Amino acid sequence: MPGAGHAPDVGRGAGPRHGGAVHLRRHPELAEQGHVSGTAAATRATPHHQGAVGAAARGGQPPAFCCSLLPDDLELLWRDAQHQGTPARQRAAQALIALGAGAGLDGRWCTRVAAADVIRQDGIVFVRVGEPMARQVPVLARWEGVVCDLAASAGDEFLVGGHSLAKNRASNLAMKFKVGHGHPALSAARLRSAWLAHHLVVRTRLPDLMRAAGLSGVTVLSDLLADVPVLKDEQAAAMLRGGR
User: Fold this and answer.
1) Distance between the two ends of the chain, CA-based, in angstroms?
2) Is the residue at 3 inside a domain?
3) 3-class SS at 126?
4) Considering the chain, what percentage of its residues have pLDDT values greater than 70?
5) With contact defined as beta carbons under 8 Å apart, do 29 and 77 qualify?
6) Using the 8-state DSSP alphabet, how is residue 141 labeled?
7) Cβ(220)–Cβ(196) under 8 Å?
8) Integer Cα distance of 112 and 159 in angstroms
């Protein structure tokens, strides 16, 4: 991966307060911990596995995957986000990526998150979202600093910038996203799927994942199973027996 050691620290005063881009770590997926005060530790790379398989929507749920998502795609998306044409577009891209990959929020929620919706409790950063399925979602540790920094610089706007409540705002922002040659397109649904797949890989309990994701059934998750590595027979047997 590119040299994260040259990345600037995340800090409360890192960016303009109204619609401008926040000067974040170049590769936020490296940050295990982040705080509004600006402390962060770069200790690991992208999530274990961010692969994807295309799937059609079922039961009224959005499709689990729009197209394949390779392990390096998240880093490429973040890199492109830093090179959008205006500070406002940089900020919007950063917020869509951080809220999608960090909290599984797609177009139903990600464009309506305000600074007051980012909460720290007992050392964990949560994002509070409204209907459908109002809830508080814990943010993956590697994205905490990014989300907190966006909240700290949002002022009275949403984290993506502005005040628009348009239902199609996420897709409109994604359409304006300038993609590097050979890089993946920006898609809020695709980022949500990457977040879901990550939690399946790290064995987050299904009831807890469904609650955090706002899911009422497991159909969407079934489309992601092909991206969960299969254990060796002896490992699977030990787990099914109740061992570690």
Assistant:
1) 32
2) no
3) strand
4) 70
5) no
6) H
7) yes
8) 8
The tally of domains found in the chain comes to: 1
Q: Is 200 left (phi over 0), alpha (psi -120 to 50) or beta?
A: alpha
Residue numbers of the domain that contains 88: 9-241
**Domain assignment present for 226:** yes
Give the amino acid at 71. P
Phi, psi (rounded to 5 degrees) for 176 = -85, -5
Place of tokens 């050691």: 5
CATH number of the domain encompassing residue 196? 1.10.443.10
The answer to whether residue 163 sits within a structural domain is: yes
92 Cβ contact list (under 8 Å, min separation 6): 84, 160, 161, 173, 176
pTM: 0.73
- Judge contact between 127 and 139, C-beta under 8 A: yes
* 4 in any annotated domain: no
**Other C-beta atoms lying within 10 Å of the C-beta of residue 175:** 10
Angle at 150 between CA 149 and CA 153, to 5 degrees: 85
Within 10 angstroms of residue 200's Cβ, the number of other Cβ atoms is 17
pLDDT tens, residue by residue, 140-183: 999 999 999 999 999 999 999 999 999 999 999 999 999 998 89
Provide the 10 A C-beta neighbour count for residue 210. 18
How far apart CA 181 and CA 141 sit, in angstroms, is 30
The per-residue pLDDT for range 129-146, each reduced to its tens digit, is 999 999 999 999 999 999
